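User: Predict the complex with S-adenosyl-L-homocysteine.
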Amino acid sequence: MEKVTAKKHLGQHFLKDESVAKNIADTLNLEGYEDVLEIGPGMGVLTKYLLEKPINTYVIEIDTESVEYLGVHYAKLKDKIISKDFLKYDINEVFKGKQFAIIGNFPYNISTQIVFKTLEYRDQIPEFAGMFQKEVAERICEKKGSKAYGILSVLAQAFYDVEYLFTVDEHVFNPPPKVKSGVMRMRRKEDYSLPCGEKLLFTVVKTAFQQRRKTLRNSLKTLNLSDILREDEVFNLRPEQLSVEEFIALTQKIEADGV
Ligand code: SAH
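Assistant: Here is the predicted structure with S-adenosyl-L-homocysteine placed in the model:
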């Protein structure tokens, strides 16, 4: 089997540039974990650089043709190929509560869902690195005040230090995607426990950004806050004007309000 036929519905754009693949693999600091899970290895362009590192590399791939290809070409991956949909897979069937890193040149059609699943499993994921559609990588890393700052930025940065690393051109892929790509990395904060309820923070952030042009006083009406709380100056702001810390402080105030 020479190569895998690219399938559009699976977001398959295979990276041709070896140096980009190596640079992505090298973003991991390998500290605090012994295993790495690569999502969507395709034909293994990134996998082969991971296999050179002092770490156990697992891959999860939805495409059976790619799985077959990997089995033939990478003997070292034996027993470490998970032929499943990452979004539906119970990660602990393999990792059993252990710490592991996530890496990938991700399928762009499910990239935000990959980040949300990572946040859900953050207790086990100290490091996450990979390539997204450029706008998505930027959005995760954006700070308050920017147009791209949104739900993904606030929730990722509540638990992780994030860094946009470099941009990758469309012509180093086969077939080339319509958009540029961006490589980013998230490292879990030393103390990532929140001083407020996590579920409430998610609700506040999502509700506020659903109507991002409105002030919080208007957008958070559905949360039935007391009139006294709603007089607080913070409610004059629009969501993109609040930093991550300010969203956490707002959530604490809402909690104290007793809703
Ligand atoms: N990493 C490879 C392939 C990138 S294309 C490279 O850089 O060349 C994205 C890959 O993700 C494809 O191989 C696709 O089959 C796989 N994929 C798509 N959806 C997936 C899912 N839900 N779970 C696991 N893999 C998926």
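The first helix runs from residue 18 to 25.
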